[in-house]
Amino acid sequence: MKHRAFHRYLGAALLGCAATLGLAAAGHAQSYPARPIELVVPFAAGGGTDAMARAMSDASRSHLSQPLVVLNKPGAAGAIGLTEVANAKADGYKLALVTADMVIIPHLNLTKTTYQNFTPIIQLNADPAAITVNANSPYNTVEEFLAAARAKPESIQVGNAGTGSIWHLATAALEDKTGAKFGHIPFNGGNPAVLALLGGHIDAVFVSPAEVIQYVKAGKLKTLAVMADQRVTGFENVPTLKERNVDLSIGTWRGIAAPKGTPQPVLDQLGKAFRAAAAENSLKRFMAEQNLGYVVADQQTFTALMERDNATFKNLIDKFGLRQ
């Protein structure tokens, strides 16, 4: 009898604790946010990622009761800012503007912080790699381009945004898929690579459509294919690789994530607010003006994308010996 009474007491105590924790979580969600929310951009001010974060901050004003404050924490290819957020208190007051770099740099041995230290909230953008050459290039189709790279390995010099960057890995992925072999020329970012292509110093670049569209429209460059599942706005006449029987889709993305362990009611509240902000015409207009791919995906879909790309980039980095 005493044992049964003790077990009843213990069960009641545990239920009481669970109820207390549940009420605490609910109370936190109801009072959240009680102060400004920090959105850490792990790159310097002035770039496309920073600009998108600030556009999102503006769009969220009417959907959050507190401001979303953008803070730039650049360094170590994004590792410094990401690590700061990963180590922050998981209460919804410090978030990260994440990019595809977060599933690349751990495999380059640049950080021990991985996508698993975060819970994704919303994806806002996706941009495929675009294979672009000079307007006077002898290659007018992606088939001609790949045939030349197979016939004379490493003769075609392809610029990228740096060794181990998303655009370098996109080039490596195409090599892996087709048997072509390029000469890889690293630059300190995509824009310097594009300028080198304009100057005739390299033969091609694999960067986002946004980084070449103004030159393509001006007739200075031509894009042979995009590494996307569907054709890209502004490049409606440019085929996807899949249309050319190369089953490859690869590119970069951006979104917002919270430290792992953030209460689900807070994540749900942020997700609802950010989806409403993403639907604002001001944000859509910004994305269109910047030629950024507008993609809105929820927590589950964004998580699946991170998992897929993490495996893809790990395989490419190991296969091509890119670990530093």
UniProtKB/TrEMBL annotation:
InterPro entries reported in the protein's UniProt record: BUG, Bug_dom1
Record keywords, A-Z: Signal
Pfam family, one: TctC
Domain of life the protein comes from: Bacteria
Leader peptide range in chain numbering: 1-24
Record's keyword annotation contains Cell division: no
Membership in a protein family: Belongs to the UPF0065 (bug) family.
The protein's name: ABC transporter substrate-binding protein
